[in-house]
Specification:
Helix Hairpins; single chain; 4 helices
């Protein structure tokens, strides 16, 4: 992505190439955005599976506690609260919970990637607008050089401006 930052800089001396490269760059980033959104979908599906596995593990641990409470240091018939508390401490539950949290992190990373690519795509859209405006200004001769006629009047104007600039420099020193 580092070299992609240069895509946001416009070489004003090579506008023709900038215009030819722009659609290709835009397509590349758009495709990456589509792929990144697909990654988000897959990560969210995986997260839902991990969530279901976590609930299933909690239920299995709860049933195991009911069958053999002594295995979990409970005496007699365990209460719902005791089963719930023991379930949260069981190794299987903790492992399943960790897998769920890891899947949640992956969803976050996937969304972060989408946001970064979307920001690049939005910036490329601004580059397009800047290119269009620059071409528009160029077409209106905005960047033209000043023209001073080579008549006596023009020569007098140039001489007058040189004297004025020389006086300003002398004053500032």
């Amino acid at each position: 992505m580092a070299n992609r930052k240069s895509w946001l800089e416009i070489d004003l001396n090579n506008l023709e190439e900038e215009w030819f490269l722009f659609p290709k760059r835009f397509f590349i980033v758009s495709k990456e955005l589509a792929d990144a959104r697909n990654e988000v979908q897959n990560a969210e599906i995986d997260l839902e599976l991990k969530k279901a596995e976590l609930k299933e593990t909690e239920a299995k641990v709860g049933l195991d506690i009911q069958k053999d409470p002594s295995k979990y240091n409970l005496k007699g018939k365990p209460t719902v609260g005791a089963i719930s508390s023991c379930s949260l401490c069981a190794r299987d539950y903790k492992n399943s919970q960790q897998a769920y949290f890891d899947a949640k992190k992956e969803v976050g990373k996937a969304w972060n990637k989408v946001n970064h690519i979307q920001a690049l795509l939005n910036s490329l859209d601004k580059v397009k607008s800047a290119l269009e405006n620059h071409v528009r200004l160029h077409g209106q001769n905005y960047f033209s050089t000043p023209y001073i006629p080579s008549t006596a009047e023009g020569s007098d104007y140039v001489a007058k401006m040189k004297k004025k600039r020389a006086r300003k420099k002398k004053k500032n020193n």
